[in-house]
DNA sequence: AAGATGCCCAACCGCTATGTC
DNA sequence: AGACATAGCGGTTGGGCATCT
């Protein structure tokens, strides 16, 4: 894939965050030519990126059907259910969440859910009744050992909104609002598209 | 007020699977 | 059959931002 070392005559390969201009070039190119072979696409579009990088950017961010913003509690439940079934098969899980990417789900799992599983481990030393009481009052995120209660049927009594990821969530939404939206980009693409 | 710490997420890396010649 | 190219996947990292002390 990208295993070949860069030849001296090769153009310099850009890394790091994508610029708005690069996004537009990629969107434009795919809108006009479709998603062909990524390496050739990158070259043909004039992007100094690897095909791999272009593919990732497109799939995780630029595709028009990518849904961004909060993971709903329904999605949250589904993620947990599917993860219980398949483990870290993120792409497989993502296929069941339209508009969500494997990367997004993976990040979500690692930053939110896994954290709570760890917390649950710590809390597992506490008595069951104590934990139930805490869970019912939604004051403390610790639940009974989540790995045991993991089968989705056991989540009925589990108040997902008790997850204190709210601040992070609202933060994410806020930060997202500060970016130009995909709608902006697509409308720009329509304006500049040939 | 400012430095330290923690969290989130976009992007990269390395590996495997699959397709093509 | 096997060598090579490409796609796809999962793990990891680094930067930016928010919160804490």
TrEMBL record:
Its main location: nucleus. One of its GO terms (biological process) is jasmonic acid mediated signaling pathway. Residues 10-62, 63-113 form the Myb-like domain. Keywords: DNA-binding, Nucleus, Repeat, Transcription, Transcription regulation. It is found in: Nucleus. Interacts (via N-terminus) with TIFY10A/JAZ1, TIFY5A/JAZ8 AND TIFY3A/JAZ11. This is Myb-related protein 305. The gene is LOC110427866.
